[in-house]
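Example complex used in Figure S2.
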Amino acid sequence: MTRDNSYQAVMARKNEIMKSSMGLDYETYRQGELAFDYERMMNDCGFTLEDIIRIQSETKVGNTPMFELHNLTAAVRKISAPGKGARIFVKDEAANASGSFKARRASISAYVAAQKGYKGVIAATSGNYGAAVASQAAQRGLKCIIVQEVFDSKGIGQPEIVEKGRKCEAFGAEVIKLSVGPELFYYLLLTLEETGFFNASLYTPFGIKGVESLGYELANQIRSMTGKDPDAVMITHAGGGNLTGTARGMLAAGCNAQVIACSVDLSGLHMASDRDFNRKSFTTGHTGFGVPFATWPDRTDVPRNAARSMRYMDDYILVNQGEVFYVTELLAKLEGIERGPAGNTSLTGAVSLAREMDADKIIVVQETEYTGAGKHHNSQLSFAQKMGIEVRRGNPEEGVNGKSIVIPERLAQVKGHRQDMEKLRLSYLKNAAKQLDPAKWSDIDRAFVAADVKKDLKWLDQALKQI
Amino acid sequence: MNEVKAGTWVEVEKILLTPEQRAPQVPEDTRHTPYVMRVAGFLTADSLYGTEVTVKTLSGRMVTGNLKVIHPHYTHSFGDTVEELLTIGIGGEI
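Predicted assembly (561 residues):
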């Protein structure tokens, strides 16, 4: 008998496919129409932070260096008001097995898949996560399939994504390359069904628990280097896992530094548009993921998302493409290290925020990633020019996404701008209200929603009047 | 003519969804295009270029599709000279 493999039929089988591909029943955590027991779900995976660190040390993950960026800090102080210009530190996550923090996220999934006897793992991602899963799978003796959105209808691949695909193949993974569209998840489901492999989703408790070690290490490294806690931690934000895991790890270390998200502002470009696909120079860490995932996390390939960024986010800085390219080049020329776009996004946010902070304060950029052919900013800018995008120096605020990239002429033009947190929280509430009329929310739903945006019930009552 | 030997590393292309079969939320410009997959693998039998063939992928799956590329490889690079970057960080930015 042939199964119905139409888009609608496969999406309708989503829950049963997910259950058998992870061995995790999300229904057991349900508490209300909206509410579920988030902490119990996170703790049920059965790993303590010590377990996570031990598992990760088996596969070349974690214990990455922390560097103080003395020259960049000095440059920022020269353009800051007297007494301003915080010390900038960076955690060199490029030192993980696959060249990014994503190795942490993949490590526990690969371990669990091997423990549970799955023959292989699958992940749907066009990001560094694919290479991370492939690298971890290789070390655990698992087969690996990575499902990627790679090319537009003309067959042209975004150079950074092409490079990420190459790296997956380098670790022995099969790479399924797809054209632009949200049907990536449709094909993920079909492939899970066909192979019976483990779904190494980005958004499971395993994925997020794996990142907790980053926040934990970070807090302890800053303490031992400076004798105090960091004041702010800048985190490149897309799907929310980086921020959620890091913040949880910091809390486990007793560190209450400000948790600040940072994304590249790609407003005006549609993420599922065939035309826009190759007119953006950043494939992740941008607002096209960062805003929708913050304001409604449960839009992924798992029933309940373990990455819930608004629970932990204190502030959100947006930077534009030209600003990140400028700071990427400065990192190489002033600090002598070449790193890739994800960490340089939060570095750009940190440069802009450090100017507002006192000179004795500490701001930590919590990741770097590898760079190379395709990922390199020169590669991205050259590709943008070929796609008809104007590249010039000037005031970065003049850049129009999809049309022009304006690279600052001076460091003082790297300013970033703040995303309105209250607006994000209200947007979350509107999304929750679409699921169920707020008049029908139970007490437990109300408490869940408030906690999911880091607010209390008093705020919730006021806010509900505004939506 | 154009016969490709079994065991050759090739890339096949397959239309997964025609424009009519695509997801309802797809934006206008994307909706007019088919949803396409490409995957590389070892050819399972001597075949002709441009015909429907079966490959064995790196994970061991058998996938059928149109034979598009023989010996697929990567050509992405660091790009052409971007002069706008060259003058950054060599003085004058403060």
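Residues 3-86 of chain B form a domain with the SH3 type barrels. fold (CATH 2.30.30.760). Chain B has two helices and six strands.
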